[in-house]
Design brief:
This is Ferritin-like protein. With 276 residues, the protein is mostly helical. It has a two-stranded antiparallel ribbon with strand order 1-2. Helix 1 packs across helix 3, helix 3 runs antiparallel to helix 4 and helix 5 packs antiparallel against helix 8.
C-alpha cells in the first residue's frame, strides 16, 4: 500500500502525538511540504521576505523525523551491506564502513535533537531493500551472482545518498528561525553530498548529476530521485544564457545547481523500501 494516500489525513496539531503507524507518520511529514509555499521557489528568494519568521516546533519536529527516517534507512542499508560479503574489494569495504559510521552518528544526533524539542523520535521502520524481490543486493538468493549483487549495492547506495542530499535541501525553509537546527541540518546535508559523490566515483561515474540522468546501470525505478534535476532556471534566470561570450551548455548548467526534493517526493521514494 502506497503511503502517499495518508498525506492529507493529519493536521499539524497531531505531529507530536505518539505514532501507532510509521506510514501515518510519513503522511504527516508530507503535509509539511504542502504547506510550505517557499519550497516551490529557489531557497534564496524564499527567504528574502519574512526572513526572521520562526517555524513552529511541530514543523521542526516533522522535518527532523523525516530526516531521521531517511537516516534509519541508510544506516541499516550500509550495516547489512558490510555483513553481506558482497563487498569483496578493500576500497569498497573501506568506503562503506566509513559511510556507515557517519550514518550511525546522524541517527544518534537526530534522535537527540528531536528529544531536545520535547518530542518523540519516529520509530525505526521495517525496511525491505529487495523491494518485494526486485533486487537482491545482499545476495540472499542462491541464483544471484556476486557481480549482480555488488552492482545493486552500489546503485541503491547512489539512489539513497542522492535522495538524502535533495531532501535535506528541500526542508531547509521549514527550519528558518531555528538557527541551531538549521545549521546542524546543513552540516549533515554537505556530508551526504560527499557520500553521494564518493559512491558515484566508486561506480566509475562523475561526481555530479547531469540533467535528470540517473547514471549508467541505475534501475529505472530510481528515476524519481533525479526528476527535476534538468532545471536550468535559477532565481528566475535561465543560467544557460550566462557565461563570458559563450553561453553555458545545458549539461554544465544542470551540473552546477542541485535541485530539491519536497517532503512528498522524499516520502514517495523512501516508501518503496518500507514494509511497516
Amino acid at each position: 500500500m502506497n503511503i502517499i494516500k495518508f498525506l492529507d489525513e493529519f493536521t499539524t496539531d497531531q505531529l507530536q502525538a505518539p505514532m501507532s503507524s510509521r506510514r501515518a507518520m510519513f503522511g504527516q511529514l508530507g503535509n509539511i511540504s504542502k504547506k510550505a509555499a517557499m519550497l516551490a521557489v529557489p531557497f534564496g528568494l524564499a527567504t528574502m521576505g519574512n526572513k526572521a519568521q520562526a517555524q513552529s516546533s511541530s514543523d521542526v519536529t516533522a522535518v527532523l523525523n523525516l530526516a531521521l527516517t531517511l537516516e534509519y534507512l541508510e544506516d541499516e542499508f550500509y550495516d547489512l551491506a558490510l555483513q553481506s560479503g558482497v563487498l569483496t574489494t578493500a576500497k569498497s569495504q573501506a568506503i562503506y564502513a566509513q559511510i556507515a559510521k557517519h550514518e550511525s552518528q546522524h541517527v544518534t544526533f537526530l534522535t537527540s535533537a528531536i528529544e531536545a524539542q520535547g518530542a518523540t523520535p519516529v520509530a525505526k521502520p521495517t525496511f525491505d531493500f529487495t523491494v518485494g524481490g526486485a533486487f537482491d543486493p545482499f545476495m540472499n538468493n542462491a541464483n544471484t551472482t556476486q557481480a549482480t549483487a555488488y552492482a545493486q549495492l552500489l546503485a541503491l547506495a547512489q539512489a539513497f545518498e542522492d535522495t538524502g542530499v535533495r531532501a535535506y535541501k528541500g526542508q531547509a525553509a521549514n527550519l528558518i528561525g531555528n538557527d541551531a537546527v538549521l545549521t546542524a541540518a546543513l552540516q549533515i546535508h554537505s556530508v551526504e553530498a560527499r557520500h553521494a559523490s564518493e559512491i558515484r566515483r566508486l561506480r566509475g561515474l562523475e561526481g555530479w548529476i547531469t540533467g535528470n540522468q540517473r547514471g549508467e546501470g541505475m534501475p529505472e525505478a530510481t528515476q524519481a530521485v533525479y526528476n527535476g534535476e534538468e532545471n536550468v532556471t535559477q532565481g528566475g534566470v535561465d543560467v544557460t544564457t550566462l557565461g563570458s561570450g559563450t553561453p553555458f551548455s545545458v549539461d554544465s548548467s544542470t551540473q552546477a545547481y542541485d535541485e530539491i526534493l519536497t517532503g512528498d517526493q522524499a516520502v514517495e521514494i523512501a516508501s518503496l523500501f518500507i514494509v511497516s
